[in-house]
Write a structure and sequence with these properties.
Blueprint (H helix, E strand, L loop, with lengths): L1 H36 L2 H27 L13 H30 L9 H28 L2 H30 L3 H29 L7 H11 L5 E11 L2 E10 L5 H18 L3 E10 L12 H5 L1
Helix pairs in contact: 1-2, 1-4, 2-3, 2-5, 3-5, 3-6, 4-5, 5-6, 7-8
């Protein structure tokens, strides 16, 4: 597991450094271009990219945290820090989207203004769209390699930024031809709503892991297949699985012949564990409780075999 964990943190660190450098350059370019062109929308887009620089710095800090070994206060390690950071990122996205909507509505209620338009603003916005798309693609690719919800969430954040820049571009063009900032304002409100939707989705996924839940039923079916593959093992039940920093922690019971010895029961459980590891990657730990066949009364925790098949 150590090699896999090392690879995971290496991918996360690489993703954070790419995002840090890329967003810093884009933020500086957009803010300066916006000030020169007199485009408030473009300056706002640049400030949004500045927030992404902060997110990258937070990610680098989190890498240091999840690299720490388990200790007395954290016997399961520090992998959950990544999920906490993902939830934190969802709040940043949510308030960014809400602020965009509030500012846009305030501008809408304040009346129309003369539209800002220049070649510099168009070039900066097009550069932002291309740059953010490449950053989103790299973050998603590295996030999948690392199996990191935090990096994948940041990729979704970058995708939101592409939408923001695209909205700025469309707003600039339409506003230029219409002579008013009204189209730009309406587009900004729609973009803000889309960002909020993305933030809620990211939070729901992070919260599911924080609550030790999982949308994926495949690992539970792996338990059934593994038990069925080992002679002497029967009736997997009271199964509970959770993820810690992308790694599976698995607990369940099996039945064995009441007449078998402790050594034989231990051997059967070890074979079941080996079968699970053949079928499922990123294992943190497997705890198998062995019971004599038929002694399964009053067990209310975890999933039964029927639940796992369902």
């Amino acid at each position: 597991m150590n090699t896999r964990a090392d690879n995971k943190t290496a991918y996360i660190r690489r993703a954070a450094l790419i995002a840090l450098v890329g967003n810093a350059l884009l933020a500086l370019f957009k803010i300066v271009s916006g000030l020169i062109a007199g485009s408030n929308a473009l300056v706002g887009d640049g400030i949004d990219s500045s927030a992404d620089v902060l997110i990258s710095i937070i990610t680098l800090i989190i890498v240091k945290v999840i690299e720490k070994p388990a200790d007395v206060q954290h016997p399961w390690g520090h992998g959950r820090a990544e999920v906490v950071a993902t939830a934190f990122l969802s709040f940043i996205l949510f308030f960014a989207g809400a602020q965009l909507i509030i500012n846009s509505i305030s501008r809408l209620l304040g009346g129309g203004q003369e539209a800002d338009f220049s070649a510099i603003a168009i070039i900066a916005t097009l550069t932002s769209i291309v740059g953010k798309f490449l950053l989103a693609w790299s973050q998603y690719r590295l996030g999948k390699r690392a199996d990191s919800p935090m990096v994948i969430a940041n990729a979704k954040n970058m995708a939101s930024d592409v939408m923001i820049s695209a909205g700025v571009l469309v707003g600039l063009i339409i506003s230029f031809f219409s002579g008013t900032t009204l189209p730009d304002t309406i587009i900004a409100i729609l973009i803000g709503a889309w960002i909020i939707k993305t933030a809620v989705g990211i939070f729901r996924e992070a919260n599911l892991e924080l609550m030790d839940g999982s949308k994926n039923t495949l690992p539970y079916r792996v338990i059934i297949e593994a038990v069925a593959a080992v002679p002497g093992a029967d009736f997997p039940h009271r199964a509970r699985m959770r993820q810690i920093g992308g790694f599976w922690e698995i607990n369940f019971d099996i039945d064995v012949d009441p007449q078998c010895t402790i050594v034989e029961a231990h051997h059967i459980a070890s074979q079941v564990e080996a079968e699970i590891k053949k079928r499922l990657e990123n294992i943190f730990d497997i705890m198998i409780h062995v019971e004599p066949r038929g002694d399964d009364a009053d067990e209310t925790y975890g999933l039964s075999e029927d639940d796992m098949r369902g």
